[in-house]
Write a structure and sequence with these properties.
- The chain has helices at about 1-35, 115-125, 135-150, 165-175, 180-185, 190-195, 205-265, 270-295, 300-325, and strands at about 40-45, 50, 60-65, 75-80, 85, 95-100, 130.
- The protein is of the alpha+beta class.
- A 5-stranded antiparallel beta sheet has the order 1-2-3-4-6, covered by helices on one side. The chain has a two-stranded antiparallel ribbon with strand order 5-7.
- A hairpin with a 4-residue loop joins strand 1 and strand 2 (about 50).
- The longest helix has about 60 residues, at about 205-265.
- It is elongated.
- The relative contact order is 0.07.
């Protein structure tokens, strides 16, 4: 019985490990589609993936990556189409087969970007590959000239149009599933991961994710630029605080101290009496000017000038007296 329990535990561990590996493989495929939107997943079950190669000498050159059953414990199988490619990584004994020692350096079991790194290395290696044979080379040269004459036709073939995931389509697909299938998706992580990886919307979201990454990158760069501006403003504020603000503060404190000293030495009652007397004096002066005008002892021009000045002084002193009362 103990042996049977141990075997059951081992089977459970193997099952869990298999589910984790499948999820990790799906994550690697998703990362590959995100990095290279032109990637096409031909068959999820067999793990067949195709990626177009940007090679002007060989139009239609395509990289084919097949994930073996034991993947990610073993390296992916890589072939190139068409097979008549002149490149040192091509295996002569197996037409179309690609192999290089650098393909072993990627951590397929642990790195979610392992497929991205592998495909990036292969695309870079085969971007300058040529066709075997002189006749093929001449044909390729002629095709290359046609491509140079029509550069506008090259762009659309290298990328897929952006297509966002439709909520209605996903909802419709889920509603069409039987009840037992829905229960399985909710309870079985392996089934859920498999269903998610095989969704047709997943293969079309690479371009949208790449656009979002570019927008986030632009936003991050803009934030970094603003961060530098904020740092400059902080430095300027620090300089102002250490020089101009300190000087103004000291001057204000000095004037405030002088103001308080003057106010403390003044009797408000005495000040009001003096201001009242001064206002009455200005009022009497203006009355005296009116009397002189009546007696024709002053000209009209001089009267107007002196009378306006006298009344202005009177009103100013009256306003000061009113402010002291409040």
């Amino acid at each position: 019985r103990e042996r049977e329990r141990e075997r059951e535990r081992e089977r459970e561990r193997d099952k869990m490990f298999s589910q984790v590996m499948e999820i990790r493989v799906n994550e690697q495929i998703t990362e590959l589609i995100t990095e290279f939107p032109q990637t096409k997943v031909i068959d999820r079950k067999s793990g067949t993936i195709q990626v177009p190669v940007k090679n002007v000498k060989i139009p239609g050159l395509t990289l084919c990556v097949v994930l073996p059953k034991d993947y990610p414990k073993v390296c992916p199988h890589v072939t190139i189409m068409p097979a008549n490619v002149d490149h040192p990584w091509m295996q002569k004994q197996t037409p179309g087969r690609v192999w290089h020692d650098s393909m072993q350096k990627f951590y397929y079991q642990h790195d979610e970007k392992a497929l991205v790194k592998l495909v990036a290395t292969l695309l870079d290696a085969f971007k300058a590959a040529t066709v075997l044979g002189s006749n093929s080379g001449m044909a390729t040269h002629a095709q290359n000239n046609n491509l140079r004459q029509q550069p506008q036709n090259k762009g659309p073939a290298m990328s897929l149009p952006t297509q966002d995931m439709s909520y209605e389509e996903i909802k419709k697909d889920l509603q069409s599933l039987p009840e037992d299938k829905l229960v399985e998706l909710l309870t079985d992580k392996k089934a859920y991961a498999s269903y998610l990886a095989n969704m047709k919307q997943m293969s079309n979201m690479g371009s949208s994710m790449k656009e979002l990454v570019l927008k986030n990158q632009a936003l991050a760069e803009s934030s970094l630029e603003k961060q530098n501006q904020i740092a400059d403003v902080k430095n300027q504020i620090a300089i102002i605080r250490s020089t101009e603000v300190l000087e103004v503060k000291n001057k204000y404190e000095e004037l405030a101290k002088e103001h308080n000293s003057i106010l403390s030495s003044i009797n408000v009652k005495t000040l009001k009496e003096k201001v009242s007397d001064a206002a009455a004096e200005a009022d009497e002066t203006s009355e005296g000017l009116s009397q002189k005008l009546m007696e024709k002892k002053i000209s009209v021009e001089n009267f107007i000038d002196e009378y306006c000045k006298s009344r202005e002084i009177y009103h100013k002193r009256t306003m000061v007296l009113q402010s002291l009362d409040h």
